[in-house]
Amino acid sequence: MSVEVWWSSLASADRDLLRLLDAGERARVESLERSADRGRFLISAAMLRVAVAAHLEIAPVEVLVDRTCAECGGPHGRPRIVSHGTPAPSVSVSHSGLLAVVALAPRGPVGVDVQRLDDLDDPVDGRAWATREALFKAGTPAPGDVAVSELRPPLPGYVAVVVVPGGQDGAPRITHWPRPIARLSASGGGR
Questions:
Q1: Is residue 164 packed enough to be buried (19+ CB in 10 Å), middle (13-18) or exposed (0-12)?
Q2: Cα–chain center distance at 166
Q3: What is residue 141's predicted lDDT score, i.e. its pLDDT?
Q4: Which of 25, 44, 121, 127 stands 20 to 30 A from 133 (CA)?
Q5: Fold entry, domain 4-176
Q6: Nearest 5 degrees, angle CA 40-CA 89-CA 72?
Q7: CA distance linking residue 1 with residue 45, whole number of Å
């Protein structure tokens, strides 16, 4: 099975998603000062649970996510899925601007990064930036050991990259959650 990539947007943030999160994740949402940061974390955490649940064929609330920071032991580290007796997928999460993305790999490390180009000092360097971030999230494996794939973000003005172990089967399987993201018109309106 190939890597799975799940996309969502800040527009999908809804307080009803809090029911999918554990107590620590809900506390983190509430602790963030900016509403956009709360929305991005809420969407990312909920989408991670939904994606892993679909992969493992369990309910999202049954997904056990360990977010222990490797440096300080706090609850804000890279997410790791705790096994339910079957091999747990490797996961990676990123968000920037209006977009959130989750990547799952059934075996080996995975790293994903999305970046809004307007947030970079040099937008021309966007792909290189996203690649460095995705490699870091995958544990900075040796270049020959991984496949680096540029993703097509569902909104213009973003760049995204996923890194998976070499030998993964096929192109990433893309899912838009909870529904396809409407491209914004040039006037800034909706569909």
A1: buried
A2: 20
A3: 67
A4: 25
A5: Ribosomal Protein L22; Chain A (3.90.470)
A6: 60
A7: 23
Distance between CA atoms of residues 115 and 123, nearest Å: 10
Q: What Å distances lie between residue 37 and 11, 19, 107, 130, 172, CA to CA?
A: 13, 18, 30, 20, 27
Per-residue pLDDT at 57: 92
Residues 182, 48: Cα–Cα separation, whole Å: 21
Domain boundaries, the chain: 4-176
Reading the block at residue 174, the tokens are 């893309």
Helices (H) and strands (E) in the chain, counts: 3, 9
DSSP letters spanning 15-48: GGGGGGS-HHHHHHHHH-SSHHHHHHHHHHHHHH
Which residue ranges of the chain lie beneath pLDDT 70?
1, 141-144, 167-169, 180-191
